[in-house]
Amino acid sequence: MKLILNKKGLWLTAGTCFFLAFLFIKTYEETIVGIPSPEFEAVRRFYWWIIVFGCGFLACLGAALWIVKTPTFLLFPGTVVILGLFYMLVLTPFSTPDEAAHFTSAYRLSSQLMGKPAVADEAFLSHATEEERERISRGANVLVRSGDDAPGLYTHVGRVTYNLVLKEMLSLDNSQGMTVRYEIPVNTTPVVYLPQALGICLARLLHLGYIPLVYLGRLFNLLAFAGMAALAVRIMPFKKELLMAVSCLPMTLHLAASFSYDTAFIGLSMLFLAWCFYLAFEKEKVTVKDTVLLALLLILLEPGKIVYLPVAGICLFIPSSKFKSKKNYWISVISVIAAVVLAVFLVNRLVLSAWATTTESYVGWSEAAGYTLQDVWEHPYRIFKVYYETLVTQFDYYLTTMLGGFLGNLDPNLTVPPFCLMILWYVLFVSVIRREGEEAPMSGGQKLWMVILVFLSACLVLASMLLGWTPRELTYITGVQGRYFIPLLPLVLLVVFDKRLVINMDLRKSAWYLECFVSIYALIRICSTACLRY
User: Fold this and answer.
1) Which residues, 6+ apart, have CB-to-CB distance to 144 below 8 Å?
2) CA atoms of 305 and 31, how far apart (whole Å)
3) Which residues is 178 bridged to in the sheet?
4) CB–CB of 515/248 below 8 Å?
5) Using CA atoms, how far apart are residues 305 and 508, in angstroms rounded to an integer?
6) % of the chain beyond a pLDDT of 90
7) What is the pTM of this model?
8) Does the pLDDT of residue 135 top 80, yes or no?
């Protein structure tokens, strides 16, 4: 292992660690005055160790980047996992949007994998309690161990939740039978819940308690994402650092360190993008195996989130000359399209049928009438105005929540501060801009095609919430969050990768380090806020 000594990088590392120490270690005594002791003494120690380990992580990362000449490939996935563990601990279970529903869905899959009863049946109903019957009448039907329906871990991040997690982290299961979980599961392709379900299976086999079961499910989801991100970076023929930057965004890591199925879609979208670009710009000949793998990635990605279906159009970047013959090219194109369309139909046939035939819609959260496809066909100008109003009023919110604003179930007090969001935009720009001597293989026509695909996908994202979540009384689309656009972010940024825009300095290492610093700083700040509130 060859060693170097980059003084500027080491000064940056020392400066950021000193900054954190000055802000948080120096004021530690003043902060913990608001944390009652001895009742919450464990929370006091937890906050202290988050500060210490956060500074230690940045020091080790800086040493790996600026002392080792060629950092090992494992540095990137290892960093994703370590940062994810910080997010996992600071933002406690079920604080991520819809995480409780995703947990329930993963639990159902774990029961199916273990050959155990997964949902309530007639036999369960015969001895169900009144509360369980009420839950089943609302659509909740997933069976869990009685101890896995314990209250206390719902959305709110505070010292009470921290205290519960710290005390029960090594607990064992003492359940007395099965019960029905409160949440209604998400019905989609089960592959997006496979890592979480495997973690739950392991916890159940080891007879671990509720808290360790939840954290094992989260951990397996994080490990799966780190693996997909690392593989995508390895395959990507150029601008690998762009995928690294997107993978380490605070919102991406927040999702990866939870039960959210958005993690799978972000990872699969990066894998698909990397594989398409590899076949289009690096591999000399495309084989049948390459086409099968491309179709498999699309089959895993598209049925669960049909709003990203237009992104499949980047397959057209692969020139027909790389196939054995024109006949093979067209057979491959038709086969991939047929496989994806069939998978989308089989998984979403009920939803698609409902959208196509429904003439009236009801939005439960507002108890008001909603939009339907009939409205889109009959009143296109009205729908256009709704989209326009959404763009005018919500665009900045989408940008903020895409990077890391309003973490902890969109909690405005648990957020990445504005100056850190500016640093993240700098990191993304540095990761995609062309460096001196680097080739930019994409043509202007290909970039225009990417912009069109992103535009179509963004319209579908908005349409899904227009038809499923927005009451007619509103003049803009509600329910859309910036995290839905993360799979589209690399395509948007790659438009900047152009031979006419170049930078002479190599700022990749420092930019990525600053991105990791933003996460540590924001998480310590969030932890200090959460520890002080009940």
Assistant:
1) 104, 107, 178, 179, 180, 181
2) 43
3) 145
4) yes
5) 32
6) 68
7) 0.95
8) yes
